[in-house]
Amino acid sequence: MKIHDTIFAFDLDGTVTKQEILPVLAKELNLYDEMSLLTKLTLDGSIDFKQSFRLRVEILKSIPISRIQEIVADIQLDSNIEAFIKQNRQRCVIVTGNLDVWIAPIIKRLECVSFSSIANVDGDRLLSIQEILLKNKAIFETRNQAKKVVAIGESYNDISMFTEADLGVAFGGIHDPVDELIQVSNYVVYDGGALCNLLETL
């Protein structure tokens, strides 16, 4: 197994993507505003991630998986970050609490390793959540492949990823990183191009 000098671990929603995915999905049920509020409270740490994620999945699971994947395939990504990941796909991983079957089109597009929550499915139907990802566990599992792990994210849920990584970069691409994450970060960046330039130096 090849050992890399540095592996970059990216949060997905609001970091690689230019939109939070679950509120976009909720448009199918005319619940965009409600899902946006619930997502914001979760990102801020006002609501426990696991509790909130189970609730949000329960709301969205009536949408066929195939339809969700069609929507997710059209989600806009930060062009600079997408290019960086594709150019360094052997050294980049996605670490997200989102469900494997929902984010599959983005992971296929990026062609990199991903850690995510796992769904129980039956054909085109989502039955339940099998496992919710612990982000620090994903970083721990990545350690045996690199001398250094750099985490990139923006929400309260990324704190455990940052504390397990060697370096943390708080990224304010579509909204400001939460204060608690900034406190455990080594760098704070607000532009995708600037972020990638920084990562090239780490």
TrEMBL record:
This protein's UniProt keywords: Amino-acid biosynthesis, Hydrolase, Magnesium, Metal-binding, Serine biosynthesis
Entry cofactors: Mg(2+)
GO cellular component: cytoplasm
GO biological processes: L-serine biosynthetic process
Pathway it works in: Amino-acid biosynthesis; L-serine biosynthesis; L-serine from 3-phospho-D-glycerate: step 3/3
Gene Ontology terms for molecular function: L-phosphoserine phosphatase activity; magnesium ion binding
Keyword Magnesium applies: yes
Catalytic activity: O-phospho-L-serine + H2O = L-serine + phosphate; O-phospho-D-serine + H2O = D-serine + phosphate
UniProt xrefs under InterPro entries: HAD-like_SerB (IPR050582), HAD-like_sf (IPR036412), HAD_sf (IPR023214)
A Pfam match: HAD
EC number: 3.1.3.3
Membership in a protein family: Belongs to the HAD-like hydrolase superfamily. SerB family.
PANTHER family xrefs: PHOSPHOSERINE PHOSPHATASE
Protein name: phosphoserine phosphatase
